């Protein structure tokens, strides 16, 4: 991922990538917790997996968007 022309400050770039780096595990964790709660409420066993997948996809979307913006 290349630094864009307007990003002269290294700390702005580090902050942007640090936010993207923490977004993926946070999205997976939130997806797991929502799925676990729904599994308990609805007496199912598969919603954890569904929401972990949804959390993973939602965490990678901003990263893919940022990579495409740099190209």
Please provide a written account of the structure.
There is one protein chain. By secondary structure, the protein is mostly helical. The chain has one domain (20-70). It is 80% helix and 0% strand. The chain contains 2 helices and no strands. It has helices at 10-42, 47-70. The chain is elongated, with a radius of gyration of 16 Å.
Summarize the structure.
The protein contains two helices and no strands.
Spell out the blueprint of helices and strands.
Elements: H1 10-42, H2 47-70
Helix pairs in contact: 1-2
- How would you sum up the major sheet? none
The level of helicity is: over 70%
Q: Report the order of strands and helices.
A: HH
The rough form would be described as: elongated
- Based on DSSP secondary structure assignment, what is the total number of beta strands? 0
- Poorly predicted runs are none
Instruction: Note the gap between the termini.
Output: 9 Å
What percentage of the residues does DSSP assign to strands (E)?
under 5%
**Count of helical stretches:** 2
Number of domains: 1
Radius of gyration: 16 Å
Q: What structural category do the secondary elements indicate?
A: mainly alpha
